[in-house]
Hints:
By secondary structure, the protein is an all-alpha fold. It has helices at residues 2-32, 51-61, 65-77, 82-102, 105-109, 114-127, 133-146, 155-163, 168-174, 179-198.
Amino acid sequence: MSKLIRYSSYTLCLCALVLFVATGALAQGRGHGSGAGRGGGVGGPPAGVGVDRGLGNASSRSGGRSDDGLGNASSKSNGRSDAGLEHARHANLNKADDDLRDHPGVPRALHTNANDLRAGYQAALATNPDLTFGNYVAATRLSQNLGSRFPNITQAAILNGLASGRSLGQTLRDLGLSDRESKDARKQVDRELKDARRN
Length: 199
């Protein structure tokens, strides 16, 4: 009789163990199987789970501010990281230092000194990391040459145009110059800056 009880207990334990293992395997298969999930994909998480759900929650919880932030970061940086933008600023500033060292006549032509010209360019790079030193110098000289006749053509206005992706010529036309006036103004500045670089 005791042998029968022991054998029955052993059999029940074995059945319980098999049932436990089978239940765990079945649950795993439903969650991570190779069949198509609710989203129609193979494997992977079902629809509404993971990174996409997190972004959706961020948008709803922040009242849309997270969407605005992502859009602003993308439009201002063209998809580049902060490190990439800082690298662009640093590279452009190094080129400006070389230019100032090799052409000391440029600051004089702009009625300033090298330190102030460099500081102004560095401040402009904070808004437009891709601004070249040549375009900054040209914008400064154009505003000096044209400002008395066209009060709206300021250095800041030209730099804003360049930061928005417009060229110097397009920016001057946007600020009210005709095609001929824009070309003549840029040619004059080119001559002046070439002379300054010779000194």
